[in-house]
Amino acid sequence: MKINHLTSAEENFMKLFWKMESFYLKDVMEQHPEPKPHQNTVSTYLKILVEKGYLSTEKEGRIFKYTTLVPLEEYKKFLLKELSHNFFNDAGKEILELLLTENLISKEDLKGYFDLKIEIKPTKVEEPKFEFADEILNPKKEKKTKVKEKEKDKEKKKKKKKD
Question: Quick check: 11 pLDDT over 90?
């Protein structure tokens, strides 16, 4: 089911229609809060919402019965996906971070909803390795033995020259 964008006025009417689910024009006029729109205005929006696929019509004698086709939950998902795509690069994490920083949701809410234990653990930081400094400060034994061997070789050569 392809969901189309709604204007704010269309959304306001749909909020009322989602509550009623199935209704007649007279029901809309009765249920709409003050100030009530003109009947022609309501008829125009009903026609638009039928064309957009949000409502279906069924003729009963001389009047039409309207029924919502797009559930409210589907429209909410559509809006959230559009918001995520257009403003958050499809990253739910960014949305969640914004909700948390704006205090629209708390960590306690998340714990209760997901029944998770959210803990902030310190990250382990690896100590930097200074290979050259380590070699100078802590020379390997192999190097010491090589140096000693070279010294011994020099001493042997000196002794041979003396002999």
Answer: yes
SS3 of 67, please?
Answer: strand
59 Rama sector, left if φ>0, alpha if ψ -120 to 50, beta otherwise = beta
**Contact (CB, 8 A) for 55 and 17:** yes
**Tokens linked to 127:** 């100590």
Say how many C-beta atoms besides its own lie within 10 A of residue 16's C-beta: 15
60 by DSSP, 3-state: which? strand
pTM value is 0.62
Specify whether the CB–CB gap between 73 and 52 falls below 8 A.
no
Neighbours of 68 (CB within 10 A): 19
Return the percentage of the chain with pLDDT > 90, whole number.
47
Q: Does 110 score more than 80 pLDDT?
A: no
d(CA 78, CA 84): 10
Q: Are 18 and 72 in contact (CB under 8 A)?
A: yes
Retrieve residue 60's tokens.
């009963």
122-139 pLDDT tens trace: 656 566 565 555 566 666
Residue (of 29, 135, 3) closest to 13 by Cα position: 29
pLDDT for position 90: 84
